[in-house]
Specification:
Order of helices and strands: HHHHHHHHHH
Low-confidence stretches: none
Number of strands: 0
Largest sheet: none
Mean pLDDT: 85
């Protein structure tokens, strides 16, 4: 049960993380330069916290570095799609496609490539949460931004797949915390290397919104991903990621009660479906 507790803590962090991305986008924009700045600063903040959590130890293996570099490229690409998508579609739609990809791709990879058992509870959970996500979409919300929907779907899903590959690999590798530090460091290096090619001539000072957005996103995201990575060593991806998706839906909707935009009836229905799916995952063999 301790690992489901870790996943629940990660779910809470992911739910709050969406707001920090939006704070940064409102303060800085959503271009390529803004994306690279956001990735570098967020990862730097997250790396500092993870380095302390790892006892100020830096771990390294060639395989871990390769996976960390792939994770960094995926993370920067996802951030670009996220910041751009948030300027074209609303937060609920962004959340739907992001979480659907984060659930479906690791679920499929776990079953197909890692011989995880396909239990009835997993299938019922997947169906319930997919239905819950679909309920939140309104017809007029899907008229534009198709490319960004696909981007956030595929790239967020690949994050979970890469984590599963790392944990399941027989090659020599670092600890989960050491890998998380390497991933954050790789993101900082790649983003800083690309930034001179995309930064506009105008120099922009860091505003309070940019600082809050990057630090909040980076620290929460890195710690949440570390918790999921640790849990993956003990729980199948085909069970973990549907649980994460359903949990984020429930937590995000609960947080909306404390904002000016209260949940709509369809969002409450989606939460009920997500909760039913999570119960099915736990109770049905």
């Amino acid at each position: 049960m301790i690992y489901y507790g870790m996943i629940t803590a990660a779910v809470a962090m992911f739910s709050i993380q969406f707001f920090f991305k939006n704070i940064y986008r409102n303060a800085r924009g959503s271009g390529t330069g803004a994306t690279l700045e956001f990735s570098a600063l967020s990862s730097l903040a997250g790396m500092a916290v993870l380095f302390i959590m790892n006892g100020l130890r830096f771990e390294f293996t060639a395989f871990s570095l390769l996976m960390a570099a792939l994770s960094a490229v995926n993370s920067i690409s996802f951030t670009f799609c996220s910041l751009t998508a948030l300027g074209k579609i609303n937060l609920s739609l962004y959340s739907v496609f992001s979480m659907l990809g984060g659930m479906v791709l690791p679920f499929a990879a776990g079953i197909i490539f890692f011989d995880e058992p396909l239990r009835a509870g997993k299938i019922v959970c997947l169906l319930f949460i997919t239905a819950a996500l679909c309920v939140t979409i309104q017809r007029d919300e899907c008229r534009s931004g198709t490319g960004y929907y696909i981007g956030v779907f595929a790239l967020n899903g690949m994050s979970g797949v890469l984590s599963k590959i790392f944990q399941a690999s027989p090659f020599e590798k670092t600890s989960a915390a050491g890998y998380s530090v390497l991933s954050a460091a790789s993101t900082v290096v790649i983003a800083c290397a690309l930034l001179p090619f995309f930064r506009s001539g105008e120099k922009r000072k860091l505003s309070a919104g940019m600082i809050v957005g990057t630090m909040g996103n980076g620290i929460l995201g890195c710690i949440a991903n570390l918790l999921l990575l640790i849990s993956l060593a003990h729980l199948p991806a085909s069970a973990q990621y549907p649980f994460v998706t359903g949990g984020v839906m429930i937590m995000s909707t609960a947080l909306c009660f404390f904002t000016s935009k209260k949940p709509r009836a369809r969002e409450l229905v989606s939460v009920a479906l997500a909760f039913a799916g999570m119960l099915a995952l736990v109770l049905i063999d």
